[in-house]
Each structure stands twice: as structure tokens, then as C-alpha cells.
Task: structure prediction
Amino acid sequence: MANSPTARIAPGFVLLLSALTAIGPFTFDTYLAAFPRIADDLGVPASAVQLTIAASLAGLALGQLLIGSVSDAFGRRRPLLTALGVYVLASVAIMLVQDVRVFTGLRFVQGFTAAAGMVLSMAVVRDRYSGVAVSKVLARLMLVVGVAPVLAPTIGAQLLLLGSWRAIFAFLAAVGATLLVTAAVALPETLPQHLRRTGGTLAALRTYRDLLTDRSFLALALLSAFYLGAMFTYVASSTFVFQQGFGLDEQQFGLVFAAGAVSITAGTQVNGALVGRFRPEQILSAAVPVGVGLSLALLVATLTDAGFWPVTALLVLTLGTAGFVMPSAPAIALEANPHRAGSAAALLGALQFGLGAVIAPVTSLAGEPTAVTMAAVMAGVIAVSAVLLVAVRRSWRRDGLADQVGGAPTLEATTGQPAAVPAGSRPAQ
Result:
């Protein structure tokens, strides 16, 4: 299936890819409201339950590296179906756990297998589309993906009204099984045999080495990773900040969490509307500084004890800027690497979720997370993203490119290769 900048963007195809990507947010967000209950049931402190998020993020990072690379050699379909099957089994096993260490290990497996849906969806997009179409499809994909964080904590809260926290993992098992059947029936292979990487493990390692030594790619990957670290900080801390700190019940927390997800989704859709008028480089260059200003304002609001509404409003607006960064940075990086899209998408995701696994527990180092610690970490990692943006802009200008806000460069000038590389025109690496 050749890629094309003008290929028809089929709604059903995008919906399936979005659902596969959304398995990640569902895996992380559905059980957030249940943290206090899980801690009580397993007889452990809240920090031990919070570490289960770090474990699943670590699994997601490693899973993307391995599964993305495997898919460049064996195609997208077989690794996806295998991973979804294991995801279902891990979800069922979590329903039976009585020990937090087993729970944490199974969450790692769950994250590892959820990685397949996320990384292979991005690779499939790059297999089938090129040019501006990549940004447009990613923006549409993010619209549906944005619904998952809206629904997930709300569904989790409702399941808690009906029974134990274990019902949440029964629900995730059902979601995984549904996706497994749907993908088996409706998702064709998108990576032709002649474009698959040969050479085994050494070739895979060379591909990752080449990507890691590509300064523009690495800067973009780290920029998006640190920026999403702010979102993971919010995900890991929000249940304690709002339920313990502000005294919200499980249903009220679900509404606040949904507001943040709506903000992220709105950002992705505004981003999608801007693509075509502005290049992703220009959008990224505007969104990150706005995020720095909003996150610093959030930190000031928490330090001055401004109260629930100012903190919530600034938090929601800060999260909204992630809706511009999430599609833009990967679109720039993937457009430059059509011949190794699986590995590029895997490395992007691994850095994002690997750093997320490290950053997310930081707020609990001094005890239960608070609004101040959450805001401080979010502002810090967004500031790091801003520094990386400055670095990548300097790299573009050093190569004689136009200023990103005043006039975005072409990908051909940035990478030395055409912006749209038709499938089959470049040998697999």
C-alpha cells in the first residue's frame, strides 16, 4: 500500500488506528480514581500504587523500542495481534492479584503490550501517507485518542460504584479482546515485503544508532518527551491532588480529569486546522513558549494557595498546549524518516514514556503528591522542552534555514532528502 500526500483519509481506517492508540490512555487512566481503594485493599501506601504507573510507563517505553523495530522487519500486523493477545491475558491476571509486587509486574507487561497499538498505529500512518497528510491524519487520530482520557476515568469511577477496583481490569481485558478481533478482521498489512528491514538484530541496532546520532531527530524526540512528562506528572499526581488535597469525590475527580482531556483534544484539533496554513515547525515554535508561561503561572497559583478554580483553570490551559506539541513534533520527525518509520516511531515513544516513567514518581519523593509539587515538576519539564526547542531552532538556522516562526523550512532542506518519499523508492535499512 503506497504512501501518498494526497491519499484518501478514510474515516474508518483512522478510527481503527485511533482506537489502537487509545489503548494506552485507557490502560493508564481508567484506574486512577481507584488508587485509594487499591492501596487499602492491598495494604500498601499510596506511593506503592503510584509506582504501578511508573512500571506501566517503563513497559510502554521498552515495548515500543522492541515492537517498533520488530515491525520494520516482519510487518505491522503479526506483532500487533500477538501483543494484543498478551494484553488481554495480563489484564485478566491483574483481576486476581493479592500482592502489590505481582500487580506492579503485571502492569509492566500490560504497558509493554499496549505499546504495540500506539507505536504501530503511527508506523501504519507513515506507511500509508506522506507530506502534510501525515500531520492531518495524526491530528484526526488525536481527536479520537483525546476522547479516551475523557471517558477512561469516568468509566473507572462508574465501575467503582458497581463493584471492586478489579472490575476496571475486567473492562480493560474486554477492550483488548475487542481490539484484537477488530484488528484481525479489518487491519491489512501496510509494510510491503520489499521495504522490510533485513539483517536481524545488528541492522536494528544500526537503525537506532543512526536515529540517536541525528541531532534534529533526537532534539525533537526529547522535546516531546519532556513536554509529555508534564502530562504524565499530572496523570500520576492528579488523583491525590484533587481527591485528597481538594476533597473531590471519585465522580467529581472524573469530571476534572475529563476537562483536561478535552483541553488536550481541542488543542490537537486546532493544530489540525492550522496544518496547511502553517508548518508543524511554526506551530511547535509558538506552542512551547505559551506552555512555559502557563505552567509558571500554575506554579505561582499553587504557591500562593489561590484555590481550586484558579489552579484547575491554569492546569487545563497548560495541558491544552500539549495538544499542539503531541502531533507536531512526531510529524516533523516521522516525515524525515519514511524508510524507518517503525523504528523512528518506536524511539519517539520510548523516549516519551521512558522519561515519563522517571518523571511521574518525582512528585511523591517527599511524600504524597501535592498541588505545589505537581506544578513545580510540570513547569520544570516544560522549561527543559523550551531549551531543546531553542537548540533545534539553532540547528535549523545553522544549516541556513529560515526562522521557524517567520518562515518554516522545508524538510528537504532540513534532512537533505525529499519531504515526501513514495513507498518503494528507498531501500529498507
